[in-house]
Amino acid sequence: MTEISTHPTTDPAATGPASPTSPAGDAELVAAAVAAAGRGMTDRETVAEVVTLCAVAGEHLLVVGPPGTAKSEAVRRVAGQFGGRYFEYLLGRFTEPNELFGPVDLRQLRQGRVEFETAGMLPEADIAFLDEVFLGSTAVLNTLLGLLNERVFRRGRTVLASPLRVCVGAANHLPDDPALAAFADRFLARVFVEPVADARLEELLEEGRRPAPAQAGPDSPAGLLAAVDRLASAARTCDLDEVTPLVAAALRRLRGAGVPVSDRRAVRSQKLVAAAAVLDGRSTASARDLWVLPLIAPTADTQALARDTLADLIEKAANRSLVHAAEELSRSTAARAERIARTGTALLAEHRGLPAGRDSRLRLEAALREIDAGFDPADLPAALAGIRAELVAAVAPS
Question: For the whole model, what pTM was predicted?
Answer without folding.
Answer: 0.88
